[in-house]
Design goal:
By secondary structure, this protein is an all-alpha fold. The chain contains 15 helices and no strands.
């Protein structure tokens, strides 16, 4: 038997796990990144089932971002059967590592009673954790709770404060709501210049999953604010909004998760 043939037979005799590193042995970070590739179709194939599988491997290794992503997938039934309780379990594991997006997501589950008893006060407690960790979504959720008086006493000043923090990170929903507060004069003197500024930015940035009717409503709100401005004030505010957008373009494109 020649040497080449002997090497082939030797290779066949060695267990597969000894021939190459097992996929499970990859680091939690790499496992998560593979999940991301499948989730977003970065390699040309979007596959939520594979994404969930790789997130699970990473999540079991304690990677907070994977725990959050897996919890999100269970909440919405992406690649796995929809299971609010399992989703909440993974989200809380991520939150235990101070993952701000997981904290905001848990707040939403308490707000809508998904897998838990509906409780606005508990929802707000999670929004506060997320907001205090600087998460734009958590800041927006907390601002909305103050605006509507859900789980906390209604407080437009606090709503304005948290919407602004979120909007300055490029979060479109907060921009829209900030415009509404300025337009109505809630928590601040009525100011149509500021209302138009934030409405215009909200139109410019990408707001994920916004229904067509809501996009029309946002444009209508901007046009209504514009009707209160002089031609000069309108042009100046448009230029200011464009300058802001160009300066913050890196943060203005948002991940739906």
């Amino acid at each position: 038997m020649n040497r080449a043939a002997a090497l082939v037979l030797l290779a066949l005799a060695i267990p597969a796990s000894s021939q190459a590193p097992r996929l499970e042995s990859k680091s939690a970070t790499v496992q998560y990144e593979i999940g991301e590739d499948y989730y977003y179709g970065k390699n040309g194939v979007q596959d939520f089932v594979q994404a969930a599988d790789w997130y699970t491997r990473s999540a079991k290794n304690g990677y907070a971002q994977a725990q959050y992503s897996l919890g999100f997938m269970y909440r919405f039934g992406q690649g796995v059967p929809q299971d609010y309780i399992e989703g909440l379990r993974w989200l809380k594991l991520a939150a235990a590592q101070n993952h701000p997006s997981a904290e905001a997501e848990i707040g939403q589950m308490y707000k809508f009673g998904l897998g838990v008893t509906q409780d606005d006060a508990v929802a707000v407690s999670w929004y506060k954790k997320s907001a205090n960790h600087g998460d734009a979504r958590g800041e927006c959720d907390l601002a909305f709770a103050y605006q509507e008086g859900e789980g906390v006493p209604q407080d437009y000043v606090q709503a304005m404060r948290w919407y602004r923090k979120s909007a300055e990170q490029g979060f479109g929903a907060s921009m829209w709501n900030l415009g509404t507060l300025y337009s109505a004069g809630w928590g601040t003197p009525q100011n149509f210049v500021e209302a138009y500024f934030w409405y215009d930015l909200a139109v410019s940035v990408k707001i994920e999953n916004l229904a067509t009717k809501d996009r029309i409503k946002l444009s209508d709100d901007r046009d209504q604010a514009a009707s209160h401005l002089s031609s000069t004030a309108l042009v100046q505010t448009q230029e200011r909004a464009k300058k802001w957008f160009d300066t913050h373009i890196a943060i203005a494109d948002q991940d739906s998760r």
